[in-house]
């Protein structure tokens, strides 16, 4: 027999041996387990792993996110979260929703409250796929525009005070981290936030006099360096009274617009930029010394107060355009 025929017979014989071993695996599990044939062992133990589902389907399949699934449908966000992403979702369980005051969920699911529902749900979503090993303490922007505060300590993670009870549920378009409490973004505009704080009465009065209230109630987003009542009290006594006169309305509007920047600019970003162009046209200087942030020399007392249409930084002095 020539060498070619020997090789051919050898290959055919090996193939028949493998087929025989595979047949033993299908007819007898014990035969497969005791077989010394490596090919037979691999064939018997291999089970294809199913590809992960998308975020929405994963949540629905879990069975503990029924309220979240209903809310996503009512908000019209299902298709978005079934998209390519990737997204990181901090997903409240049904028990988390049950912690809300009675009737809250039912109210949010009403068509007239869709905008608020969308805001709340987007507040639970971060762009990108962030696994638990990559989570660090700090503030992170959400799809809602506002930021969530994350605290990662001792192997545990809190998101705006909510505990992450289960992390890293892998999905085809991102990851789910389960939380035990629904987290809520601010539901007040910049003007409403200032008024409710109670320490911006003069600012609110001046905004009304300058006809800027409706503008700062708009979608924005805006960044406002907001002087407190004490800040206005530092001005000469007659200054505020003079600015409130109708003939000085344009000057008043210019001063107030100097305190407003287009966009949602948080303190860290502002410090890096060093300046920010105001709606008045000029650009106040932003500096940081020893951990204290200043805007044209005015000290930032409280930074990064979120509102539905922007962010507020409280300052201790009224700043004047150059």
Structure description:
This protein has 322 residues and is an alpha+beta fold. The chain has 3 domains: 3-45; 55-179, FAS1 domain (Roll), CATH 2.30.180.10; 190-315, FAS1 domain, CATH 2.30.180. It is 40% helix and 23% strand. It is built from 16 helices and 13 strands. The strands form 2 sheets. It has a 7-stranded mixed sheet with strand order 2-1-7-6-5-4-3. The chain has a 6-stranded mixed sheet with strand order 9-8-13-12-11-10. Helix 5 (66-75) packs across helix 9 (114-122). The longest helix has 25 residues, at 3-27. It is elongated and about 75 Å long. Mean pLDDT is 87; it is low at 1-44.
What features would you highlight for this structure?
322 residues, alpha+beta, FAS1 domain, 3 domains, seven-stranded mixed beta sheet, 16 helices, disordered N terminus
